[in-house]
Amino acid sequence: MIRLAELTPHLGGGGIEIRIARVLAGLSPREFERCWVGFTPAEPKITAIAGPDVRILTFEKKPSLVGVDLRLIETLRRFFRRERPHVVHVHNFASSVY
Q1: Handedness of CA 84, 88, 92, 93 (dihedral sign)
Q2: Bridge pairing between strands 87-90 and 2-8
Q3: pLDDT per residue over 10-52, tens digit each?
Q4: Across-strand partners of 25?
Q5: How many angstroms separate the CA atoms of 67 and 64, rounded?
Q6: Are 94 and 9 in contact (CB under 8 A)?
Q7: Rounded to whole angstroms, how far apart are CA atoms 82 and 96?
Q8: Closest Cα partner for 18 from 8, 3, 4?
Q9: Taking the model in full, what pTM does it have?
Q10: Helices (H) and strands (E) in the chain — how many of each?
């Protein structure tokens, strides 16, 4: 089983999110353990496209004077240490910072 973590800043109904939801929906749940992490709550439309076997997590990004939420970095570190994904896919620059 391949553990895949998808990381995006939003879990809304935008173009990137719809594309990712479709890709995740197309991956076999027998071959992939799929997890999608975002920094905003997921819209029902996105979770419906991704499918019921995709675990969706929201880690809130708080405003920061330096532009980077240091607590979010620690939250992601704990997540990656606990989940140990084989593949981490970061789709755009906003989530690459973390």
Answers
A1: positive
A2: parallel
A3: 888 888 899 999 999 999 999 999 999 999 899 999 999 999 9
A4: none
A5: 5
A6: yes
A7: 20
A8: 8
A9: 0.83
A10: 4, 4
